[in-house]
Specification:
Layout (H helix, E strand, L loop, with lengths): L10 H17 L7 H23 L4 H27 L9 H19 L1
Helix pairs in contact: 1-2, 1-4, 2-3, 3-4
Length: about 120
C-alpha cells in the first residue's frame, strides 16, 4: 500500500487481488454457523495467496521465489477443495460462481507458469 515495490507490477498480483476480493464476497453468503470454520479458512487461504505472491516477488533467489509461488498455488488448491465441499453442502451453487472460477483458473495458470520458469 505504501511501498511501491515490483510485485505490484505483476499481472498475477492484480488477478490474485481480484480473487481475494471475490472470495471475501462469496464467504459473506455462507451460513453463519460456518463463520469460524469454512469462512475463516477460505479467507485465510485467499489472503495467503496474495501475501505469498508479494513476499515471493521480493526474494533474490529464483528457488526462494518459486517456493513462495508454490505455497500460493497450494492455498488456491485449498480454496478449490473448500468450495467443492460448500457445493456438496448446498451452501453455494457452482454455476453461479463463474467469475470466481475464472479468476481461480487464471491464478492457477499464472502461478504454474511462474513456478515453471
Amino acid at each position: 500500500m505504501f511501498l511501491q515495490l515490483d510485485h505490484k507490477q505483476l499481472d498475477i498480483y492484480t488477478v490474485s487481488k481480484q480473487f481475494v476480493y471475490t472470495c471475501y464476497q462469496l464467504t459473506k453468503t455462507l451460513p453463519g454457523e460456518e463463520r469460524f470454520n469454512m469462512v475463516s479458512q477460505i479467507r485465510r487461504a485467499a489472503l495467503s495467496i496474495q501475501l505469498n505472491i508479494a513476499e515471493g516477488a521480493s526474494r533474490k533467489s529464483n528457488a526462494e521465489r518459486k517456493r513462495f509461488y508454490e505455497i500460493a498455488r497450494g492455498s488456491l488448491i485449498e480454496i478449490d477443495a473448500a468450495l467443492d465441499i460448500a457445493v456438496e453442502l448446498k451452501y453455494i451453487i457452482k454455476e453461479e460462481q463463474g467469475k470466481l472460477g475464472d479468476l481461480m483458473i487464471r491464478c492457477f495458470q499464472m502461478l504454474t507458469k511462474m513456478i515453471g520458469r
